[in-house]
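Hi everyone, sorry if this is the wrong subforum. Our group has a chain we'd like a structural model of before ordering constructs, and none of us has done structure prediction before. Sequence below.
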Amino acid sequence: MFSTCNFEPHKPVSSKWNCTGSSKDWKTKGYHNKSRHDPYMVLQHLRDRFRTAPRTAAETVGRLNNPITSQTVRNRLAERQLHSHRPNRCPILTARNRRNRLDWSRRHRRWTQRQWSTVLFSDESRFCLNRSDGRQRVWQREGERNADCCVREVGHFGGPNVLVWGGISMNYRTPLVVVE
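Answer:
Right subforum, don't worry. Here is the predicted structure as tokens:
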């Protein structure tokens, strides 16, 4: 039925419809330009997870010394399962802090539900009112959200801010308190 169809990419959608009964583009056997720099690009982003795609594009030349675009860099990284996300943020932890947290969790790992029901977890958070997030991105694979190389440690806050406090236990939560 469709044996007399000659595909020409520049033909309008109506020609494709008359020929195939579909308006979808036909797959063509085009040349797929893969750069010899692809493994190097991926390695750069694995070594520096906060590296930007435009920076990599500016420092990399493509086939025949043509410049590549930042979208090409993003496409090549996506092919290798590296995707751009906002970094997970956490407080700065010293080796001593980490050791103390690990010791605490080991001491309490066998607690029963009854023992945990007597515990109240509380925390305070400070929110900056006029600071931008800087739109910083990190390249990470699936499951790497909390990997050390994908986390941006944050220090003190600057500018106007609001401090709030709250707590939770097994069966209760405190009201949110704004601290003056």
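For your construct planning: Confidence is low (pLDDT under 50) at residues 28-32. Residues 88-179 form one domain.
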